[in-house]
UniProtKB/TrEMBL annotation:
This is non-specific serine/threonine protein kinase. It comes from Eutreptiella gymnastica. The keyword Ligase does not apply. It catalyses: L-threonyl-[protein] + ATP = O-phospho-L-threonyl-[protein] + ADP + H(+); L-seryl-[protein] + ATP = O-phospho-L-seryl-[protein] + ADP + H(+). Residues 4-264 form the Protein kinase domain. The keyword Secreted does not apply. Keywords: ATP-binding, Kinase, Nucleotide-binding, Serine/threonine-protein kinase, Transferase. Its EC number is 2.7.11.1.
């Protein structure tokens, strides 16, 4: 840590804390994620993972600049990752602001952001890596309104047998993670579906636990997206990304192809399930349904 000056804490999570730091020699400021290592095995594992992250070079992935080992005054050992500082906010903040103002995101912006995230995931998966914790708080904005995936924590290399280690935010776990099953790159496609759902509905919901109890709950999401004025292609894509079975979710290249050609008709099954139900009385306004998570009325 000798080369950096600690400025203040930016946040904390299950794997450690994130500080804003200044590189003393260049006066450039960065974000520094400090990951607690409980023993030498965890330290060596973290170092191997970080070396892989350092090789990632993509316009829609935050850049990793440096890494080092730090022992604090309590003798706790940290593996530290120095990364690009994203000063234009994250997607979660934008979603909360849109909800507060009762506005919605333009569909063209959503398609642009989703395409950029998909290109980043295609690059990551092509290098046999996973993010495992894709969510709105880990999607950061540039000054040009483009997005970057950040806060990888410790991503993981994919083995041919799949992974079982549970890493990420429980609220956003893919169903296979909740069930402690083997998983692959489709966990990131689930995360992409969560991001798309929250962009189109402006609200969080425990869709992972709901879908384990009733896979048809995703149809409620597609109806809500259609009612919010978004096209059937976007609603159908959300539906497919939130499939309970990982093999049913599209890959990053498949999502990119669908985003590039939104006029392509979604599957007939998705459209029939996602059709907005009209009120029995007036047959003009959408019927009111109950949110299974909180019993609030949604339309």
């Amino acid at each position: 840590m000798e080369e950096y000056e600690k400025l203040y804490r930016l946040g904390s999570g299950g794997q450690g804390k994130i500080l804003r730091v200044r590189h003393k020699a260049t006066d450039v400021q960065y974000a520094c994620k400090m990951i607690l290592a409980r023993d030498n095995y965890e330290m060596n594992f973290a170092l191997r993972e970080i070396k892989m992250l350092m090789d990632l070079q993509h316009e829609h992935i935050t850049n990793y600049k440096d890494f080092f080992i730090h022992r604090d005054r309590y003798e706790d050992l940290y593996v530290c990752m120095v990364m690009e500082l994203c000063e234009h906010g994250d997607l979660s903040t934008q979603i909360k602001e849109a909800k507060r103002k009762h506005t919605k995101f333009d569909e063209r912006r959503i398609v642009k952001w989703m395409s950029q995230l998909c290109r980043a995931l295609q690059y990551i998966h092509g290098r046999d890596l996973l993010h495992r914790d894709l969510k709105p708080t880990n999607v950061f904005f540039t000054a040009q309104d483009d997005v970057k995936i950040g806060d990888f924590g410790l991503s993981t290399a994919i083995s041919t047998a799949g992974r079982r280690t549970v890493v990420g935010t429980p609220y956003y776990f893919a169903p296979e993670l909740m069930l402690q099953q083997k998983y692959d790159s489709k966990v990131d496609m689930w995360g992409l579906g969560i991001v798309l759902m929250e962009l189109c509905t402006l609200r969080e919901r425990p869709i992972n636990s709901q879908i384990l109890e009733n896979p048809g709950v995703v149809d409620e999401v597609t109806r809500e997206i259609l009612h919010n004025g978004y096209g059937p292609a976007l609603a159908a894509l959300t539906h497919d990304l939130l499939e309970k079975q990982p093999e049913a979710r599209p890959t990053a290249p498949e999502v990119l192809a669908r985003l590039a050609n939104p006029a392509a008709a979604p599957s007939a099954g998705v459209l029939s399930q996602a059709t907005v139900t009209l009120c029995d009385m007036c047959q003009e306004q959408p019927a009111v349904v109950q949110c299974s998570a909180c019993d609030d009325e949604v339309f």
